[in-house]
UniProtKB/TrEMBL annotation:
Pfam families in the cross-refs: Beta-lactamase (PF00144)
Annotated ranges, domain Beta-lactamase-related: 23-385
Protein name: Class A beta-lactamase-related serine hydrolase
Annotated GO MF terms: hydrolase activity
Keywords attached to this entry: Hydrolase
Amino acid sequence: MTAQGTTVQGHCDPAFAAVRDVFERNFAEGREIGAAVAVYSGGRKVVDLWGGLADRRTGRLWLEHTPAFGFSCTKALTATAALLLAERGAFDWDAPVTAWWPGFGVHGKDAATNEHLFTHQAGLPAFARPVTAEEAADADARAAELAAQEPEWKPGTAHGYHALTYGWLAGNLVRHFAGMPAGEFVKKEFAADLDLWVGSSDEVIERAARLTNVRGVQNETGPRAVDDEARLTRLANAFLDTESRMNRGLNNPSPGKGGFNNPVVLRAGWPSAGMVATARAFGRFYANLVAGRYVRPETLREGIRTRVRGEDLTLTVDSAFGRGFMRPSMTFFTPEAGQESAFGHTGAGGALGLADVDADLAIAYLPNRMGDQLSGDLRSYRLVEAAYASL
């Protein structure tokens, strides 16, 4: 079954009709199976749309309250939890990790700071051995395993995306100072009344959208995040090399049977890639964050200030990060209007959470058809572009 001809449902303010047009076009041109998008402007929900199939195997429809997996969009939730804990005085960003995690200081990692865990500078972008989904559910053991590893570069001297290990590094800091798993703290502090979870119940898993890798028409024309052929070649080579740092980091722990539909992964709530949410709830999270409901405005601005920018030792192209948040770069492809003040995080397959502190804008997009672009997903880019153009 396909989602072509899908009737998009929900609400869209007439001023943001361009967002609906892009969303509907993605379905009409066969680029979606099922998806949802939400936009908040000035704290007001102006777009709340969904459509297509939540499960192409069974024909189950994507409904108003269908949640979807957000992959690395989760990292922004973990980062916000850390901002709140630091604001409350739980820890100092510049203090050494060893002040609270003594076992981390081996193999030259003793100078690593708390901030390095969030800026992808810790030098631990991958586990040294294959890790299963079942093993990954043991947060204490996986954190201890990373702490005992030799870094792939001296912490603080370079940055490289910690795609999954972020969850047992940054997530371990949150767990230590919050006294509970990062996902529980996120739910308690930010999402008690939102359809958003990092660590899902079986009931949530049962009604969640099912991810699919089915090939289809992709956005092949338009702006590209990476337009230099040499960089594209390097990116493609790293993607195809099973021993590259990119593949070692992106694919280990293995999610196991069913990929990231695996209930073992969804229940565990990896702080790097474990969020299940509706676009409406995820967008509301960012709207609340921008509005100062979670942390003080000055805390947020300092948290999103770019700490590292340039060639990413894992992804091979340029990336930029604040304290756990992506900033506009080749890996966070943003229209010109958001280049200075947008922040957020992408997720594998095309998922996106983005906010803009100056424009008072929040956008969430969650699809279940996995995009296959190596240089940015134009489905989400076009939605963001349309939202900015509607302001």
